[in-house]
């Protein structure tokens, strides 16, 4: 997968998805936490603090050889907000023109639970980006070379300098132990769901609807352009795994003059139906009115004796507008639990201490 391909995948490390810089060798000039800021790096010249020019990034002190003559290098350890398979990494040196590191590498590890920085330092790290040259004031995209589930990455810079952003793009691999047997959000990005198609994303991408938490503003949701012709806008969500959706939440918070007038929801089991066949989709919720700037929770009519197991959901908004969040609460089916468990075991190396239980029969 090239850089253009992996850049469309979720940033597993971004702060808004729960990423955190848990440790760094040095942050003398600029804070390590800036590496994961969700916005584009900013710069204002001649803004000098007590430690020099202020940067929207991470910057270390100038290294000097020690008594043994060794120069060493700086590093930062990042806990991924969404553990998964890393497909590519972007190391952005925006605004660092005379103080960028000439080389960088990236390592990754998979550790169960909530390890401390000391425990992470002793973990089994795998190099996913070898030492590679960097330039100043530029974004550098690197494909990652290990198809495994990782929980942490370590950015190494040689020998020192500043990096504005670290982006870690990949596929979410949820822990099936946290989902099996529970009511979960089958449309949550953190559970492995994705938007795989939409009619329009003029103002913002539809994956934003699947983010955790509450949107801080309308830019953190999905919003389409104003529709001038017939029809309506839509988005197709691949669920975390096959399941039965029992409650839907349509959140228009912050969308005061650009919320849809109505929404509707349909579903399909892609194992037996064709996503491109309109007749294969089954209605889950008919056209329902929504109001601006509010949450709308609707219990779906799902008979216990005939559960509607689906793999994908289609959200239709009438005629256009946007949502800040979409929640589809329900249950994984036995097939869904098997799928997640098999994928987990395939991507989690033996001996790491976090193998999933046997898959359901």
Automatic annotation (TrEMBL):
<dbReference type="GO" id="GO:0004037">
    <property type="term" value="F:allantoicase activity"/>
</dbReference>
<comment type="similarity">
    <text>Belongs to the allantoicase family.</text>
</comment>
<feature type="domain" description="Allantoicase">
    <location>
        <begin position="192"/>
        <end position="331"/>
    </location>
</feature>
<keyword id="KW-0659">Purine metabolism</keyword>
<dbReference type="InterPro" id="IPR008979">
    <property type="entry name" value="Galactose-bd-like_sf"/>
</dbReference>
<comment type="pathway">
    <text>Nitrogen metabolism; (S)-allantoin degradation; (S)-ureidoglycolate from allantoate (aminidohydrolase route): step 1/1.</text>
</comment>
<dbReference type="InterPro" id="IPR015908">
    <property type="entry name" value="Allantoicase_dom"/>
</dbReference>
<feature type="domain" description="Allantoicase">
    <location>
        <begin position="18"/>
        <end position="172"/>
    </location>
</feature>
<dbReference type="Pfam" id="PF03561">
    <property type="entry name" value="Allantoicase"/>
</dbReference>
<dbReference type="InterPro" id="IPR005164">
    <property type="entry name" value="Allantoicase"/>
</dbReference>
<keyword id="KW-0378">Hydrolase</keyword>
<protein>
    <recommendedName>
        <fullName>Probable allantoicase</fullName>
        <ecNumber>3.5.3.4</ecNumber>
    </recommendedName>
</protein>
């Amino acid at each position: 997968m090239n850089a253009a391909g992996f850049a469309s995948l979720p940033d597993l490390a971004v702060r808004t998805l729960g990423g955190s810089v848990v440790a760094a060798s040095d942050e003398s000039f600029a804070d390590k936490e800036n590496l994961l800021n969700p916005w584009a790096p900013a710069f204002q010249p001649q803004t000098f603090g007590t430690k020099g020019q202020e940067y929207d990034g991470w910057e270390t002190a100038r290294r000097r050889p020690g008594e043994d003559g060794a120069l060493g290098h700086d590093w930062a350890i990042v806990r991924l907000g969404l553990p998964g398979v890393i497909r590519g990494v972007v190391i952005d040196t925006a605004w660092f023109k005379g103080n960028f590191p000439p080389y960088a590498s990236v390592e990754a590890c998979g550790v169960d639970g909530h390890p401390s920085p000391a425990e992470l330092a002793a973990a089994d790290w795998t190099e996913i980006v070898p030492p590679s040259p960097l330039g100043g004031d530029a974004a550098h995209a690197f494909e990652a070379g290990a198809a495994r589930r990782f929980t942490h990455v370590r950015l190494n810079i040689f020998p020192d300098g500043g990096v504005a952003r670290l982006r870690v793009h990949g596929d979410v691999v949820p822990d099936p132990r946290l989902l099996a047997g529970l009511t979960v959000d089958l449309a949550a990005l953190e559970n492995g769901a994705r938007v795989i198609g939409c009619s329009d994303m003029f103002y913002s991408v539809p994956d934003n609807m699947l983010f955790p938490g509450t949107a801080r503003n309308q830019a953190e949701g999905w919003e389409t352009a104003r529709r001038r012709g017939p029809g309506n806008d839509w988005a197709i969500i691949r669920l975390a795994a096959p399941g039965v959706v029992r409650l839907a939440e349509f959140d228009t918070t912050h969308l005061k003059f650009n919320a849809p007038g109505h929404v509707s929801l349909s579903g399909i089991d892609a194992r037996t139906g064709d996503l491109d066949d309109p007749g294969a989709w089954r209605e889950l919720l008919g056209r329902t009115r929504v109001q601006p700037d509010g949450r709308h929770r609707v219990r779906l009519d799902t008979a216990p004796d005939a559960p509607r197991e689906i793999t994908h959901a289609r959200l239709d908004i009438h005629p256009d507008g946007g949502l800040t969040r979409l929640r589809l609460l329900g249950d994984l089916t036995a097939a869904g639990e098997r799928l997640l468990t098999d994928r987990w075991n395939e991507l989690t190396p033996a001996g790491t201490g976090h193998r999933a239980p046997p898959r359901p029969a």
